[in-house]
Design goal:
The complex is a heterodimer of chains A (about 240) and B (about 400). Chain A is of the alpha/beta class. In chain A, α8 packs across α9. The longest helix of chain A is centred in the C-terminal third of the chain and has 16 residues. Chain B has a four-stranded mixed β-sheet with strand order 2-1-3-4, with helices on both faces. In chain B, α8 packs antiparallel against α12 and α10 packs across α11. The chains are: A alpha/beta (about 240), B mainly alpha (about 400). Chains A and B meet through α2, β6, α3 and α5 of A and α1 and α9 of B.
């Protein structure tokens, strides 16, 4: 379970996140939706502790990300936006390296890496060096790497960007499977249709603030738009841009 | 600890597979020094041997005024040629480099000799030109010797012992040993060892910071349940390993190259046996930590791989600066120099090569102070690795 409570983050003069709050419960998929530059990635970076919030509080299963970063990181699997691999290592080695760093036992690693490779349909290229992989292949390996240690909370920053239809579809199935296993999935996107098809709850962010945090039906009702794209545009306009 | 080892092993594997790192660590760094070194040494040996044995062709103005002198210089392996027309054109020819040295014998030479007034000859040379100066010295020596021969004959003719002309006899005692003479030239070796060590770790230092950030693999790495210190220590450790490998190869290469060089002909017998090779490796180990931490530190401040490369190339020169300054000022090893990394290793290595007794205090200070600086820099790296701006 992820809870975000009024966090702010500035980079120099740019006030990227201006008091974002939401909750992502276990066994549900929560979508973080917003146009480019809305503050989605910054919010997620605070959650996987590479950034510290200037104000406010965020917790993962009750562990504060600012004061106990290590504890918070133990409870998450994160796929940052444009996650890179080590080109001289094979896909399998890339995944196993992260498993080792997560403190998994040697005996356990091989089985788990095989399992996740099968799950993500990586077998075909698992033992090739990742240099020259296509974007889709890289994303799959990066996702395997983020999930290898079986995290309770999964944070995915625009995982479908640049993927083809088939890859997007299998990723969607995987996310649903994670939800069915009772995990907390937080997932960001700037594509309304995608979020609507997948998420139980949607938190629309614009200009660093939360515009609406509701179910898809709730959002339709509150914006008065039946079309989900219109509803998205309508919601974004509810937030005043920062000066 | 196990996390640090995991990172260390991964970095080693990653870089062993990277051709660029391998070439710079195991080929370029270690080979560059010995090759350049043997080239320079062989060239200087060739030149110094050349000039002593070769017949010197000497343009002379007014040969006809001093046939006996001409005969005498010929016995000194100097061949007289017809020189330029006059003194002015001789000076011009030396200035432009057409001739290295010109001997001018004025028409009054014979007359002055007969009158027992000092007979004037002129030697035109450019003393700033070291090569030409060597030739000029040979000519000067030959003419002077001829003069002494004549004065000896004159006093004998007057029934005086020619030894009366030599009031003082100088015997110069040169205490430099063949090993000692090697030291100046072989002092160059320190540069190559430092260079090889730094080259060996350069790409790892860049890769683990700027490279990892540029590739986008840094952010996923930092989102793992490990501390950043564990990561950076593993990375610096891997950098140290490659640097050590590169240094060891460089030392070994020198060991073999020196065998093939005709250093004895230059009056040098450098003390560079396997024991010195081993001692030098141990001596440079603390410096490797300093180098690895320093390179990682600099690379972590840069925005991109390219920028890191530029800065680290500048950094390659930095450790050679204290050595250069001390060499130019020709300062003797002092205790306070031992606190300076790279300089202390250089001075101790020179002492070993000269086969001089090694000052235990100096070794202790060098090792301890370099190690302390290395640990401080590593700690600073870890601190800076924790800052938010790391992601750029």
């Amino acid at each position: 379970m992820i809870r975000v409570d009024g966090i702010h983050k500035s980079f120099g003069k740019i006030h990227a996140v201006r008091g974002v709050s939401f909750e992502a419960p276990d066994g549900k998929i929560t979508g973080l939706l917003g146009p480019n530059g809305a503050g989605k990635s910054t919010t997620m970076r605070v959650l996987y502790t590479v950034l510290k919030p200037d104000e406010g509080r965020a917790t993962i299963d009750g562990v504060d990300v600012a004061t106990d970063g290590l504890g918070a990181r133990r409870r998450i699997g994160a796929l940052p936006h444009s996650a890179g691999l080590y080109p001289q290592l094979t896909a399998r080695e890339n995944v196993a390296y992260f498993a080792k760093l997560c403190g998994m036992e040697k005996a356990e690693i091989d089985d788990r890496v095989n399992e996740i490779i099968q799950l993500l349909e990586i077998e075909g290229f698992a033992d090739r060096r990742t240099k020259g992989f296509s974007h889709g292949q890289r994303t799959k390996v990066a996702l395997a790497r983020a999930l290898v240690h079986d995290p309770r909370n999964v944070i995915l920053d625009e995982p479908t960007s640049g993927l083809d239809v088939m890859a997007t579809r299998s990723l969607r199935d995987l996310i649903l499977k994670l939800k069915d296993e009772g995990r907390c999935v937080l997932f960001s996107s700037h594509i309304m249709q995608e979020v609507a098809a997948l998420c139980d709850d949607i938190c629309i962010i614009a200009h660093g603030k939360v515009a609406i945090d509701d179910s898809i039906d709730g959002i339709r009702r509150r914006t008065g738009c039946d079309d989900i794209e219109d509803a998205f545009v309508e919601a974004i306009q509810m937030v005043e841009p920062a000066r | 600890m196990s996390t640090t080892i995991t990172v260390f092993l991964k970095e080693v594997l990653d870089n062993v597979r990277d051709r660029r790192t391998l070439i710079s660590a195991l080929l370029l760094g270690p080979i560059f020094g010995p090759v350049l070194f043997s080239f320079v040494i062989n060239l200087s040996i060739e030149r110094s041997l050349d000039s002593a044995e070769k017949t010197l062709e000497l343009p002379v103005i007014g040969q006809e005024h001093a046939p006996n002198l001409m005969e005498f210089v010929r016995s000194k392996n100097i061949d007289a040629l017809d020189g330029p027309a006059d003194l002015a054109s001789a000076m011009e020819a030396v200035k432009t480099g057409a001739h290295d040295v010109v001997l001018v014998i004025p028409p009054e030479f014979g007359e002055q000799l007969a009158d027992m007034t000092p007979a004037l000859v002129q030697i035109v040379s450019d003393q700033a030109d070291r090569d030409a100066d060597r030739d000029a010295r040979r000519v000067r020596g030959a003419v002077r010797e001829y003069g002494q021969l004549l004065s000896g004959l004159r006093v004998v003719a007057r029934g005086v012992n020619p030894q009366a002309l030599q009031a003082i006899s100088i015997d110069e005692v040169d205490v430099s040993t063949p090993s000692g003479r090697s030291a100046m030239l072989l002092g160059m070796m320190s540069y190559f060892f430092i260079f090889a060590a730094l080259m060996g770790g350069m790409y790892l230092a860049i890769d683990s910071t700027a490279g990892e950030r540029e590739r986008g693999s840094l952010e996923p790495l930092l989102s793992l349940p490990v501390t950043r210190s564990q990561l950076i220590y593993g990375k610096i450790g891997a950098t140290c390993l490659f640097m050590t490998l590169s240094l060891a190869l460089s030392l070994t290469a020198f060991y073999f190259v020196l065998d093939f060089m005709p250093l004895q002909q230059l009056g040098m017998t450098p003390n560079f046996d396997l024991q010195v090779v081993g001692a030098a490796l141990l001596l440079f180990l603390p410096f490797i930590l300093v180098g690895a931490a320093l390179m990682t530190l600099v690379a972590s401040f840069t925005k991109s791989y390219r920028e890191a490369q530029t800065w680290l190339n500048v950094l390659l020169i930095a450790p050679t600066l204290p050595i250069l300054i001390v060499s130019i000022l020709m300062l003797r090893p002092r205790t306070e120099f031992m606190f300076i990394p790279s300089l202390s290793q250089h001075l101790l290595l020179v002492d070993m090569v000269k086969n001089e007794p090694i000052n235990g205090l100096h070794v202790t200070i060098s090792v301890v102070s370099t190690l302390v600086i290395g640990i401080l820099l590593t700690w600073l790296c870890a601190r800076l690795y924790r800052r938010e701006g790391l992601l750029g």
